[in-house]
Every structure is written in structure tokens, then in C-alpha cells.
Amino acid sequence: MFKNYLKIAWRNLWKNKGYSALNIFGLAIGITCACLILLWVEDEVNYDSVFPKQDLIYIVPTNQTFEGEVYTFFSTPGPLARDLKEEIPEITKSSTTWGGEILLAKGDNGINRYGRYVHPDFLDIFSLNFLEGQKKTALSRPDGIVLSQETALALFGSDKNILNQVIKINDEYSFTVTGVIEDLPRNVSFKYNWLLPFERFQLGEDDMTWIEEYGNNFADTFVELAPNSDFEVVDKKIRSMIASKMSNTDDSPNEAFLHSIKDWRLRSDFQDGKKVGGQITLVRSLAFIALIILLIACINFMNLSTARSGKRANEVGVRKVLGSSKRRLVSQFMVEAIILAAVSACLSVLLLMVLLPYFNILVEKQITLRPFEPIHIFSLLGITLLCSLLAGWYPALYLSSFRPAQVLKGANKSLGKATIIRKGLVVAQFAVSIVFIVCSIIIYQQIQHVRVRDVGYDKGNLLNVTVSGSMIDKFTPIREDLITSGTVEDVALTNTNMLSSGNNGSGLSWQGGVDTDDVLVRFRYVSPNFISTVGLELVEGHGFKNDRAVDSVNVIVTQSFANLMGEGSAIGKTIARYDTNYNVIGVVKDYLYGDMYGNGKTGPVMFFNNFDYANTMYVNIKSESSRTEALASIGKILKKYNPTFPFEYRFENDLFNSRFSNEELVGELTKIFSILAIIISCLGLFGLAAYTAEQRRKEIGVRKVLGSSVFGIVNLLSKDFLRLVFLSIFVAIPLAWYTMQNWLQSFTYRIDIDLWVFIAAGTIAILIALFTISYQALKAAMMNPVKSLRTE
Q1: What percent of the chain is helix, strand and coil (3-state, nearest 5)?
Q2: Residue 704 to residue 713: CA distance in whole angstroms
Q3: What gap in Å lies between CA 22 and CA 10, rounded to an integer?
Q4: Containing H/E element for 45?
Q5: Distance in angstroms (rounded) separating the CA atoms of residues 387 and 339
Q6: Of 74, 98, 79, 87, which is closest to residue 246 (Cα–Cα)?
Q7: Do residues 62 and 217 touch, judged by C-beta distance below 8 A?
Q8: pTM for this structure?
């Protein structure tokens, strides 16, 4: 029986090749889009899944209260990891870690790589796979270093005898390779290319007592819980730990808490100390879009199948007269739907192979198809089955419900009901397409709105250079040579990137301030010419002098800080921090840092003339200079004073734009999906227009004989479809407005939705639909009426 179903189904699909091709191509596009999105979702959901102890590994963030508002930070005090392990029995392993870049060199081969200073427990917590060396002893010696496989290959090439070889770090310290670990995959939250013993943190520093103080938050803390531990009990113990170690606490002390490895990627957004989401919102949104795209493709099948019901009505009537049951007819039509979906799925696999490399570039991932992996096989089969059920159930039930007596007489009343449903599905298709168009326009507007905002400094020609080697010690001659080169305006050092929130603290007091102890203040340690180099606007007072001794107790503050110091000028007022009183000598205009979508009301910032711990050099390139020549000149000068270290840089504008990667991804995908949704909808509309023209061939012939013009006939065939598109616009506008209004609410600094966006989206939909319909309408209108009427 099933074999017979297959034969009949294949004959029907082959007999109507044009409509079958439209259905197959439309479904293939839908399945391809859904598969691309689901591959991306799989990669996101599987972040950090490479670590086998997922149920036991946690990072320990801290909640800190300032001015009644709770902020969540991932930096913790140095001794916290040790004390958690010693005092909480359920915590079996712990490690303090700090990450940074260092220069690794073997002979003349030097490379910059990011890594972490860790405690030995770190190796067990993450179950790192050692290719060479022993996990138990790899970090037992203070001069031992563990390298990733990729880093070892970059340093030693094909040399197999890597263990116990000596390498140079920062062109100053010698370390022995005690282990080589397997490279971590890309979808890992905390990456590292080398591991060093934590006691070697801040190489070369003499006084490191501050890392044992609970008042200094600077490191990440990881813990592993014993199996079957009660999360609530352990979390409660951890929340009271910091308060128990600090003598000066208030009614709302800082508290640490557990944050599971399963949430690091997807749920790491906090508000008022509580998880409020994160990347999971984007994952859910794109998964929903995948389902919508599939649904649009399936609607095409339902539309074309029900539209052609008149041609199959006689077949159904005859088969029923000959004894075929409704169940058998439903089975027959469902087999046709399954065959069509299966062919579409096969075509989509080919499309995936072609499109996946370009998709990877778009989403900045390295996703692989893996078609023979069980989960991917079953996922594709599931999508194929879902499509066949979504696309085939209504046509199967509808066609099998025809009454033989009516259809054989040519008087089937249910055809009118099918027309109403078919029109409703066309409206739904185009409504979704218009919503996509509106969303892509508004997302683009919002990103541009933030990109062009005034950030308070000149980022256009600002070069961000990583500080390394002797750049701090030789800063004065480096700066002089760079300025003398003629391509550079000025150069400055800082311990924090302009876009970063950076170091912060509280407990300060100042003249004119009331209840100042819990105000969160950002600290910037800079070279004297920093303010002018980055283009901050000095609104009062003056900048630093070149004499650090003179400025040792002088500071510059932002306007928001000056406003906290009461009425009158802030110049000359003092700020007490620890045991030192600092004099305010200058006030700069507030600038944007941290949250790029913030409303511009940034917190107070305090600048110190001290660049001993700088990690960034800002080079302001002259606007009239060629960037290529300027970069060549800067690289040559830095090579002269810092020959061992590579010249690494990024333009501040690029760093600024990279802050919008998620929003840009949503925008690009929405734009692509809006185009594909329109294409899929137009394929269905094209088929329906062709079928309508075919059904009205004789009517068109009579009208032409009676004098109707080509324009009149095109208008006749088009107006019914255009009415549906207009109806789609009215359905889509409130949906699109509601969707984007909710999305925009997540941004403090946002655009207002303009009416022209909806007009533009509607116009685009109308023009595309008109173009699609017009081809078939013109074709029918220009046909020789003799051909259509010769049988009359």
C-alpha cells in the first residue's frame, strides 16, 4: 500500500513540476535558514560544555552597594578563594586567577599571548587535558609554565621535545615548560594560552601585600563543589564570607555568591544584584525567528495545495466512489507532503554546505555542519517531519473532505472556504515579512543613533596601543620622537581604556560633600598630557604639569564629581582618600564609558598624574596624516625603543564599534531574514498568481475580444492580491511597533519610532508584491485570445 502511495505521490509532483519546484525551493530556503540559526543556537547553548564538571563549577562574583544601588562585579579579593576552601567543607577546590598578555620568546621567536596566573586547583577544576607533563606537578615550581598546544607549536614549531625547555617571558624572566595542554574550543567563556603559578602574579613587583587585603577586588575566583552539595546552603555561607573578614562594614556589606558555569555565557546580566538575562534573550529570539521562517515556507505549500484543489477534486471524487476511505486519502496527501519536505531537506543540506562559511563570517564563529552526527541527523529529520506536518495536514484534511456527488457535478461549496483561508495565509506571510523589514530598519537606526553620539572625547584619530616592555620607562623619548615624526599630534599613557569602567572604589570624602562614603568613584592613572591627547574638554582649571612631584597630591575630576562637591567651583577643594588629601586643579566634561547605551549620566571620575602601571598608550594621529604612513612611522619608533615586543594596536573607533556586536548581529540577521521572508512569500504569491491566471484564461480571452486593454486586465488580476498586501500592512504595523518598542526599552539611550519606517516597509512590500504579480498578469493579458477560446 505504502509503495502505491509513493508512486501516486511522485507522479502528481512530477506532473505539476512548476508548482512542485516553487514548494521545494521555498521549503528549502526555510529549512536552510532554520538550520543555520539552530546551529548558531547549538554553539551558544554548548558554551563551556567541554568541561566535564559542569554541575560543580562556579565563578564567584560580588554584589557591592553604592548609594543604595547594587552593582555586580566579577572581580574579588585575593584571599577569598583560599578562605572559601578552608572554611566551607562543601568547597573541595578553589583558585584565584588573573588574566593578562605577556611576551613569550624562544630565541628570536617572540609571540604575545593571553593567559592566566592560577593556583594548582585550577587544573583540576577545569579537568585540563595534559598532552605533555603531569597535572599534579605542572604548577608546583615557581618558574614553571604550562602552554596550550597552539602556543607551544607557535614557539617551538614541530619540535617534539618541548617539556623542560626554557623560554623568556617579557624579555626578562626565564621559565621552564612543565606542561602542554590541549587547546580549548572557541566556545569557552574564559580562554587562556598559558598558565603561571599565581605567586608570580605581577612579575618583578616587590611589595605584593595588597593582594592579601579584602578591600582590593582584582581577581576572578573559581570554586568546585563536592558532589550532592546543597547549592542554597553553600551560597548562603559564601554570601557572609566577605563581611566576616572585613572590620568596617555597613548595613549593606559587599557579598560574594555562586554563579554556575552553565550561566556564564547565557545569563550573566545582573541588575540590582539579581540575574536578569543576557545572551539567552538573543538565543530565544533567533530560535523563534527560525520557527517563523519555517512557518512562512509551510504556508506556501498549504496555499498552493488548496489553490489547486479544483484540479484534484475530481480525482478525490472518483477515488471515493471506488471505495477509498478518508484515512487513505489523508495518508496519500501526507505522503506527498513528506516527499516534498524530504526533497527540500536534501536541497537545504547542499545550500548549508555552500552558505555555512559565509554565515560563520557573519556571526564570527567556526560552526561545522557535521551531517552524520546523530543529533544533527535527528534534528534534520525532525525539521523535515515538522515541515511535512505543518505544510500537509490542512491540504490533506481539506482535499479528503470533498463529497463525491458535489465535486463530480462541479459544485463543491468548500472551495469558497478554502479561498478565505488561503487569503488569510497570504496576509499572515506578508505581515511577518513587513514586521521583519520594520525591525531591520529600526535596529539599524538604533545602532547608528549610538554610534554617532557625542562620547565626550575625540575617538576618530585615536590609536590604542598595548603597553609592553620598556614603553613606560622610555615614554618621554618615545613621545618626543612620535611628535617629531610629523604624523602624531600627541601621546599619553593610562591604566584604563577610555571605554572601560576601569578601577573604582569608595570611602572617599570631600569638601561640600554629604554622605560621600558609599559613592562609587572611577580612578584613572594617566600621564600629564592625557586630557589633551584624547580630547577631553577642560571646562575649569588646568591640566597636570610635567613634574610628577608637583602633582603628587593634585587631581582632575569630571563634572559629575564636581557637582557632588556642592555649590561653587570645585577648583581648590580637597578630596580625602585613605590618608592623603588631594587638591582639585581641573574639571573636565563628563565622557561616555562602560555602558554605551547609557543615558550619558556617567559616574564620577578622578584622574591622577601617575602612569607607573599603565597598560594602554593613546596616540592621537594628525587628521591630515595618512594612516598608513602614520602606522609605519609609529611602528618603526616603537621598534627602536622596544625591539623585542610586537607593535599591537587598534583604532579607538573600531573598539567603540565592537561594543555593538550583538545588536549588529541581530540587525544583519533580521535584514537577511526579511529578504528571505519576502522571497518565500513571493514564491507563493507567484504560484497563486499563475494559478489564478490559468483559471481565468477564458474570462481574459473574452475580455480581450470585447476590447479590454492590457492595463485593464493586469489591474483586474492584481487588485485582489494587492488588497491582501494592504491588509497585511495594517496587521503588521501594530505587531512591529509593539515588538520594537519592547526591544528599545532595554536601552536607556534610544531612538523614537518614526511613522516613515512603517510607510517605507509597506511601500517596499507593495512594490515587491506588484512586481511578482505583474509578471503573471502581463503574461496572461498578452496571450492570444484565440488560443484560450478555441475550445468554446
Answers
A1: 50, 20, 30
A2: 8
A3: 16
A4: helix 17-45
A5: 11
A6: 79
A7: yes
A8: 0.84
